[in-house]
Design goal:
Layout lengths: L1 H16 L7 H16 L4 H22 L5 H12 L2 H16 L3 H9 L11 H48 L6 H4 L1 H25 L2 H11 L8 H12 L2 E8 L2 E9 L7 H31 L1
Antiparallel strand pairs: 1-2
Helix pairs in contact: 1-4, 1-12, 2-3, 2-7, 3-7, 4-7, 5-6, 5-7, 5-12, 6-7, 7-9, 7-11, 7-12, 9-10, 9-11, 9-12, 10-11
């Protein structure tokens, strides 16, 4: 029963403490990756693969060594706690919500800019709420459910591998002139590692919200999104909440027509809190599932 107990304790620590305010290992990893990029950057896939391996493999090997020691449970709890961002995600959404509640639209725009890559300077309240919801629903998979999935499958090394790969995708996985080739490996590997967790996140959003519309939106709308994993996850979350996301958005001064995700009304301020509640219920489903699976495996031994 060590795996479900470790997961429960790590989630409790994240809920209690949140992310470390200073010396977060992922921040250090990002700086390391940026430094390595400056030295190894070439406009080629090969350079990107090499950079990915050099920055990801050593921490994963260190994790494998740590969990081979007698202090394995302690290291697993600490490492899983460090790669989960449940409370941080809710706090980011709350920052936007509080600004909008106080009719501080400039403050809300600034808070949204910390979550998304699109232009926020001209957003109204509905657009700010929609952008926040898209980010929260997508990152529910990236920061909570996918790390849990890989922890269950491959222990702390799996969770660390996933979170580092996901971080590199956020840094290098763009189809821009600079990263089209160099960031190819980071983007593709993140897609592969997210494929199964994203589908389980879709199912958990559906079970935690409106089941039928959530699954219908994920199936019919998700495949049209630019990301094969983010699309179904956001569509399922929007369908579960009964709101409509996606549509027109501005990136670096250029307007883009994106597919509509979800169904129902346009998002409102209150939906930011509803999305946090949806993720909490979905997380409860995951924890129950993990405990049930491990109990069945113990009985079968």
């Amino acid at each position: 029963m060590i795996t479900p107990l470790v997961a429960a304790v790590a989630l409790f620590l994240d809920r209690w403490w949140g992310e470390p305010r200073r010396f977060h290992p992922l921040v250090g990893f990002g700086r390391l990756a940026s430094g390595l990029e400056r030295r190894l950057y070439r406009d080629s896939r090969g350079a990107g693969v090499l950079a990915w391996l050099l920055v990801v493999v050593p921490p994963v090997l260190l994790t494998i060594w740590l969990v081979s020691t007698p202090l394995r449970p302690v290291f697993e709890i600490v490492l899983l706690y460090l790669v989960i961002g449940w409370r941080a995600l809710e706090e980011a959404g709350k920052k936007v919500r509080v600004a909008l509640e106080h009719q501080d639209l400039p403050g809300a725009r600034q808070a949204v800019a910390e979550l998304v890559s699109r232009d926020t300077a001209a957003m109204n309240e509905t657009e700010a709420s929609a952008a926040t919801l898209e980010s929260l629903l997508e990152n529910g998979n990236d920061a909570i459910f996918a790390p849990l999935f890989w922890f269950v499958v491959a222990g702390a090394p799996g969770a660390v591998l996933y979170r580092l790969a996901n971080t590199l995708d956020a840094m290098w996985g763009y189809k821009s002139t600079r990263y089209l080739h160099f960031g190819w490996a980071a983007a593709r590997l993140d897609d592969v590692l997210n494929y199964l967790p994203a589908r389980l996140t879709v199912l958990s959003y559906a079970l935690a919200g409106a089941l039928k519309p959530s699954l219908q939106c994920a199936w019919t709308q998700g495949r049209g999104w630019k990301s094969p994993n983010a699309g179904p996850v956001m569509a399922a979350g929007a369908g579960a909440l009964g709101i409509r996301l996606g549509g027109r958005a501005c990136y670096q001064g250029q307007w883009q027509e994106r597919p509509v995700l979800g169904s129902g009304r346009l998002p409102q301020l209150a939906d930011i809190g509803r999305s946090a509640d949806l993720m909490t219920r979905a997380l409860g489903i995951w924890l129950a599932g993990i405990f049930i699976v491990w109990a069945v495996l113990e009985i079968m031994r």
